[in-house]
Predict the 3D structure of the following.
Amino acid sequence: MVLSGNREWAWRCLPILAAALVCAPLGASDEFEKQVRPLLAAKCHICHGEKQQMGGLNLSTREGFLAGGGRGPLINAEQPAESLLLRVVHYGDGLKMPPMGKLQPAEIAALEQWVAGGAEWPAEKAARQDAPHWAFQPLRKDLPSSSIDHWLNERMAAEGVVAAGPADKLTLLRRATFDLTGLPPTPDEIEAFEADERPDAFERVIDRLLASPAYGERWGRHWLDVARYADSTGADEDHRYPHAWRYRDYVIRAFNSDKPYDRFVREQIAGDLLPPEDPAEGVNVEGIVATGFLALGPKLIAEIDKLKMFYDSVDEQIEVTSKAFLGLTLACARCHDHKFDPLSTKDYYAMASIFASTKNWGKVEGSPVVSTLYDRPLVPIAEEKAYEDALAAIEAKKGEVNAVLGKAGKRYRDARMERLAESMQAAYRIYEEGADAAETAAALGLEPEVLDRWVSYLKPTWERRPQLEAWYAAKTPEARASAAAEYQQRFLATAAERDEANAKWEAEAAAAKERGEEPPAKPKFFAGDDRFFSEVSGGKGPYALPTENRDEHLTAEAKQQLETLQAEQKQLEETAPKPPLANAVNEGKPVEQHVFLRGDPRQEGDLVPKRFPVVLAGERQTAIQDGSGRLELANWLASPDNPMTARVMVNRIWLGHFGEGIVRTPNNFGRIGEPPTHPELLDALAAELIASGWSVKSMHRRIMLSGAYRRSSVATAEQVEKDPENRLLARFPSRRLTVEEMRDGLLSLDGSLDRTLFGALSSGEGTDKEFSDARKSLHPDDTKRRTIYVSLRRSNLPTLFSLFDFGDAVTSNPQRSSTNVAPQALYMLNSDFIAERAGALATMLLADPSLDENARLRRAHLLVLNRPADAAWLDLASSYLAGYPDAPAEQAWTSLCRTLIASNDFLYIQ
Amino acid sequence: MLRRTASGFGWMGLTSLLAEQGALRATGGESPLAPKQPHFKPRAKRVIFLFMHGGPSHLDTFDPKPRLTKDHGKPLPFDRPLTFAEGQMGGLLRSPWEFKPRGQCGLPVSELFPNVAQHIDKLCVIRSMVGDSVAHGGAVLQLNTGSNTFTRPSTGSWVIYGLGTENQNLPAFLTLKPGLSHGGAKNWNSAFLPGVYQGTPVGHGGVSVDELMKNPIEHLHNTRLTAEQQRYELDMIQKMNRASLEKHRDNPQLEARIQAFELAFRMQTEAPEAFDISKESAATKKLYGMDEDVTRDFGWQCLMARRLAQRGVRFIQINHEYGPGNEVGWDAHTELIRLHTRTAAMVDKPIAGLLADLESHGLLEDTLVVWGGEFGRTPVSQGGDGRDHNPYGYTMWMAGGGVRGGMAYGATDEFGYYSEENRMHIHDLHANILYALGMDHERLTYYHSGRNFRLTDVEGRIAPELFS
């Protein structure tokens, strides 16, 4: 395993080596970046790269390439085909490169094509050491206080793009309502907004929406994507996080109460270490729950190499923390310094030290290999120990109960095993020869219920049971008698052997206890060492203490003992504190963290102090001496001086409104991320976020009141030509509804959506011994609650979620994708959910006697598409109803409603 | 830029994206699943992967070890590698099953597979498999996706990304009754490949075959409308969607969605026919063991594999799973004899039936059949009468699809613990599967997150000896 561990480390690194080659911007140089540079990297850099330059040649930079090596320039501009580069790869006369094997024909062709096209090697962006990367610079404070549109218009003017006009009122209302609440506007809201002629009508809409509890359910979901939230561990065993929902609810509440973002950050890293907002409370429940951010990651829990498992989980926390708050891929520095960003392995292990000193597991060394998750009681720290002691006392008492039952079981077995051979033969007569069970038992003086169990145990099935084969092989009464005698003899021998070993151990353990020493290990017997014995004396076997009328088989003394012990156990259980629990972290034992060479936890390098990445926090940092360092980390992340935190968050808010961020790689602000389309705007908004007391709601207002947000989405040919990716936002980018918006929106059509806030929709721990068929997420059709409350098993997301691009809830997901595939269309056409929604809408419309057909059609259109129907659609729809083949009106209406639901105008926000 | 394109693809967008990425060139049509030319002449056109979840013991099926019989009960004479159930391990455990030479080739197969043994001359038995994970979770993921830790596209997804499919009206990659544990959907997921390359599950391990026959693919059946009514409805949807497209001509997603509805409509007429086995003769059903309770379930899966292969589905995975009725499947940590006997009995006849039936339909020559689990089992006992996981050396076999039959490739040591000769790592197996399909595993790449990815990561070794 250590070997294979190493292999995994290596694995993780290699991709990054390859990735080193693609940092230049794409564009005219696409061909070079995609075909040539990776090829040079894969096949040439090992000898002609950054590390070594054999023959004086460095193929990792433009300069090196242009300079060539000892044999001169690589390219012959006059006769490209004769270029040295091509000669060597063709393996002609003379030098043959690469020496370890000729390139594939396609690779050679790529080089030829590139050389024929002029061997253009685009100028590099300034190398890492030269120009400081924009994102690591402090926020610009010298910016004029300008409107969002000022910055956008400036660039549009520079590039000669004309902005689209404003969207019409109802398009804007639909856009804003879905954006802020994930729900469609109601007919009343539509009517009110249409009638509102005041200049600040839209501003009032925004305020109304921001005040709705649905706001937290929509924007909380954005954050839950970033926090890779789910209700189970995923990976190998997919155990439940039974209390994960508390974290989800915390996030929803945080958005609804406009919790200052800096506090939100602090709480998710170290909320348990912050004083509660209400000092009267002895424990910061909300703060503890918030650390679910760290605790709820995907985890391998049955990994055999526990050290690796532990540090994989630390790694996962570093990854999500650095991406979510800093927009950095610090996890890339686990095995080597980051390839693009100035992040070293020391930076990585300095943070690893913090998380490794944090309690995140129940028991790492599990039994036999499955580790247990940590449930943190929501009590003051002083009460934690009492809680854990109580749990331990209950476990100990259970052990005593089991010891008494074990003795009783042995007694039960011993009292009967001398008649084992007789019982087997009697059972044979019953199961094979049809003898009457009761009569047989009575004739022999055997207990009928024990004989019954013998019959069910010995009766042949289609399966092979090797332990019974000798019995089945005995074909005559004599043979059976002798076989049965042998079974009995072996049974007695095994019983004696085990009893003896156990008695010996008990004596030794008692003696050891007296001497104050550790008792020796209890003798271990495997069921498979004598399967017949184990089955007969255990489980539901004939000589196992029966469970139903158990007490009848106990001695008075045992009965007494058991009663006492069980009463004590009950007492313990009743008096034990039963605090609510959270999947959260706690302070652990502080570790002295070394750099792990190549990421291998068994190869320790330098000791690293707990501190923050040097590129952001500077060389001179006060070393963290006490505790895990989480509180210090939280404070540093949430500091207004940290240049990343505010930028990364305003970019997420922007993205939530425009579908793309100002930085279009929202989880990567490093060098291979994209630079901001509007750098000043980004900094201005970041500064404003801080200045507003980190108010997210103020930022929504600011963005949504801009001209850019209110623009029409209809593009002109010129806009599409000049700015195909809409980086200038000259038009509003349309988007598909998310799976949550689609489902919640459809449930709300007829008022079916259950708007209850918060709470758990499923319960249970571990896997509850489920076989593979049962480890499922809650089926969304089984609840009418908003989609955010559907609990999710990472290994088996509901089909609806996978179909509509929910993501995988495994890694931080800053941005949903949006696909259009046939299975989605099948869902629209055939699923129960859509049929039920269309049917409910039709029923509701038909049930209203005040409506005639035309009014019903208008109503349906308004409900689903949130704008009035035009004449063309009304014509189309009434002839649709009239011409609907062979069905009652209700079905035709259901079908018509489904066409509205399946239409692009429902599924897309314009 | 790439991410953006990928996130909003329509047929056109995606096709050009793939072309940009140097993916295989489409030979016709605009669909990202249109059949594509492989890199070189393929031996096989499609794959049937018979996944034995839990890990069948190679020592009791295809890789006999006389040394275990001789030294039964003795300790393993070298340091044991890490096992799953540390602390329960005993001495060497002989195979309780007899091996006999079979077929023309004389390769030994144990009594567990009397029916498959009759096809031994078609089988290329790889006795030198190696994986990296000793626990199921990682091992199953690695067998299906190449990675035992990260979420990566499954083998089937890579195959249909590379080759498209021959039947546009059926899913290109189907997995029948897959398990939901040990990675669950990750095992047929397309990960960062576009969603169109995701496998389509048919039920899961816990669904009965009778249920499945009624409704094999979710949302495929419309039980409410006649075909005429549905076409009428679809025409209305398309009219509305085209009207919307008129207004927003710059949005390729709207066009893509119109196409998706047409494809869906065709799929729902074609797929039910594929899953309707009522026209199969009683003799055929018997061949697959569908007439007996023990073999009915897996027999149906195998019969479906042939029917889907016939209809041009590119990658078909069928799964023997954990679950009610199947107990722990192949995962015999205890009671090796009982558990392996019952599990082998469930799959032996159906698999033999599949091989015979593929052959008689002329499909075997261009269908690559791959059999195996996520690892093998230990030569030492666990808990007295079981065997633990062994990823260090185990057996898988291939048949059809240009594979050289009647041969054993590679070998484990004399105890069957480590792969010793011609090691075939799971990455190598993947490379060879792609090779059989005419694809160079080093050139089947996808650009994601700043670099090119492959099914075989940076590994993969072709073993030309496997193929004739």
In short: The radius of gyration of chain A is 35 Å. Confidence is low (pLDDT under 50) at residues 1-28, 125-129 of chain A.
